[in-house]
Amino acid sequence: MLSTTEITKRSFQLYKENWKPMLLLGAVVLVLAELTGTSAEGDISASVLALVLSVLVAPLTQGGYYFYLMNVWSEKPASVRDILYFCKSAGMYGKALCFFICYMIATSVIILFSFVPVLFAAFMNIPVHSMLIAYGITLLLLIPFFYLVLRLMLAPYLYVCDPEESAITVIAKSFEMMKGYVWKYLLISLAVLLIELIYILPEYLLTSAGVNDGMVLALTFIPNLLVYPLVYLMTAGFACEVLREHGIIVDENAELVEACTESFACADSDVQDALIAEKNDDIYYDET
């Protein structure tokens, strides 16, 4: 498997080679994310609407977008139309929607369990010093529960590889396949965070200076757009490398070499001798 440095370098190279479609799709996904995110700033009805919208566009912003990024990383034919991969039919979109709902519920439930002590303390209206203890317990619980969430990160990519699998099966496979790769994923996440500082830092400074949210969004949209496809390509690259290690994604070149080897092994001895002699002649002429 490629190291964090190699994944980062290759992501930059692929981004450079495919920057036009990547920026176009990145803009579409980013705008959809901002629209569903900004509508959450209000009353409960606005938050519910934002949640519903974010779920409805998940087959595009996650499913189709991840399909495109995986094609780019694997150097397969990739097109901006890949974002509509799960919208080819109502049935395909419905299955993808069900999967992403299940995936969001699974990750949300795991995170929610880590906040049980604080929620219980707030509900019981306990004294301040007891609340501090509850917060301390929650911080301790966040570590193992965060680890569990990281074990599920492969699920969307596994589903892209095989949309016929059930959500439970895909989530279970992700949990199993990520064993031993969580630390490497944390390193990728750290590299992603360092790159994201390009727009996170200006956003923080503008917000601290009292600039209104609309202006902050306008000023940081371009840096965010430039970074967005790259960091998601890095994550997709990591996922592809893990899936390749488990044999889910097969290297076509490796398949070709294996097929040629098998053909050679199955050939008659006379044919093998002729192939070897031809190869030796080629080597001789190359040397001379």
Task: Lay out the secondary structure.
Blueprint: H1 4-17, H2 19-38, H3 44-56, H4 58-73, H5 90-114, H6 116-124, H7 128-150, H8 155-161, H9 167-177, H10 182-208, H11 213-245, H12 252-266, H13 269-287
Describe this structure as you would to a colleague.
By secondary structure, the chain is mostly helical. It has two domains: 4-250, no CATH class; 252-288. Helices cover 81% and strands 0% of the residues. The protein contains 13 helices and no strands. It has helices at residues 4-17, 19-38, 44-56, 58-73, 90-114, 116-124, 128-150, 155-161, 167-177, 182-208, 213-245, 252-266, 269-287. Helix 10 (182-208) packs antiparallel against helix 11 (213-245). The longest helix is centred in the C-terminal third of the chain and has 33 residues, at 213-245. It is globular and about 60 Å long. 24% of the residues are buried. Residues 253-265 and 278-288 have low confidence and may be disordered.
Label the overall shape: globular
Query: H/E order of the elements?
Result: HHHHHHHHHHHHH
- Our estimate of the beta-strand percent is under 5%
The biggest beta sheet reads: none
Q: N- to C-terminal separation?
A: 38 Å
Structure annotation, total helices: 13
- Count of separate structural domains: 2
Alpha-beta content class: mainly alpha
State the share of residues found in helices, binned by percent: over 70%
Instruction: Give the low-pLDDT segments.
Output: 253-265, 278-288
Q: Over all CA atoms, what is the radius of gyration?
A: 24 Å
If you average the pLDDT, what whole number results?
83
Secondary structure: number of strands:
0
